[in-house]
Amino acid sequence: MKNRNARLFTAPAAMVFAFALAGHSFAQAQAAAPAPTDPKATEQWEPVPKIVAPGATDGAAPADAIVLFDGKNLDLWETAKDASPARWKVHDGVVTVDKTTGNIQTKQRFKNYQLHLEWQVPQGITGEGQARGNSGVFLASTGPGDEGYEIQILDSYDNKTYVNGQAASVYKQAPPLANAMRAPGQWQSYDIVWTAPTFAADGALKSPAYVTVLHNGVLVQDHYELKGETVYIGKPKYKAYGDAAIKLQAHGDPSPPISFRNIWVRKLN
Ligand code: MG
């Protein structure tokens, strides 16, 4: 990026110098270049974008999405620690975290994707700070003992905590650009675009991860470049991994558990 900016800056400067040497003013040089006249010259016709039928309403899964949870069962999910069937409680078209059985993750593995999920902090939530409706969505679960990359889920409606740990933060890396939280008892949505990091064969980082997040339709992470995994203690760093599961957190705090509904993902290449 630095090199590119340097070039953008130096190229016109070099041109001005060259024209000055040739006895031309910059304005004369510009006037000499023929102005484009054909609007068709800048039209692109191929390839035609594929058709994706959108959902009937905002937040509904488009036709090419993988529906990870539609309110009926957790067939596409497993317990993260041992890959046994996911045992969170499905009821009334939602799934509620079961803190006793731990994190759950998708059976399928993903690289780059667009993810939609909805979550609800229960009315009458108790606790404060990080111990109030804490959960999270790990955009790449890199292994049972690893932290992965967490977008925080928390009751941040009226609940002070460190800002890079409030709802919609990239945990311990980036506070959200705004607090778009609805009150407990209401449904919240996250729409997330995840660009996975890439690694060389020797495990060295080739390109970092990026994430864009909308919380209830409000932009809260804008193509943020991650510094590594979102660790609880210490500085983030990258560790090579391949395609990975999407994981939901069963946080150990004693506040009443949150619920999820309407989770879908679109693979991006
Ligand atoms: Mg969390």
3D structure, described in words:
By secondary structure, the chain is mainly β. The protein has a single domain, classed as Exo-inulinase, domain 1 (Jelly Rolls), CATH 2.60.120.560. It has helices spanning 2-21, 26-32; strands spanning 66-69, 77-79, 89-91, 94-96, 104-106, 112-120, 135-141, 150-153, 187-195, 198-199, 205-207, 210-215, 218-225, 245-248, 259-268. The strands form 3 sheets. Strands 1, 3, 4, 6, 9, 12, 13 and 15 form an 8-stranded antiparallel β-sheet that branches. A 5-stranded antiparallel β-sheet has the order 2-5-14-7-8, with no helix packed on it. Strands 10-11 form a two-stranded antiparallel ribbon. Strand 10 and strand 11 (205-207) form a beta hairpin. It is globular, with a radius of gyration of 24 Å. The structure holds magnesium ion (MG).
Describe the structure using short key phrases.
269 residues, mainly beta, Jelly Rolls, 10% helix, globular, binds magnesium ion
Oligomer: single chain
Residue-averaged pLDDT, rounded?
90
Distance between the termini: 23 Å
Low-confidence stretches: 1-23
Task: Tell me the name of the CATH class.
Answer: Mainly Beta
**CATH architecture classification:** Sandwich
Please report which band the strand proportion falls in: under 5%, 5-15%, 15-25%, 25-35%, 35-45% or over 45%: 25-35%
Sheet with the most strands, sense and barrel status: 8 strands, antiparallel
Helix content: 10-25%
CATH topology descriptor = Jelly Rolls
Number of helices: 2
Tally of separate domains: 1
Structural class, from secondary structure content?
mainly beta
Order of helices and strands: HHEEEEEEEEEEEEEEE
Per CATH, the superfamily is Exo-inulinase, domain 1
Shape: globular
Listed once per kind, the bound small molecules are: magnesium ion
- Using only CA atoms, what is the Rg? 24 Å
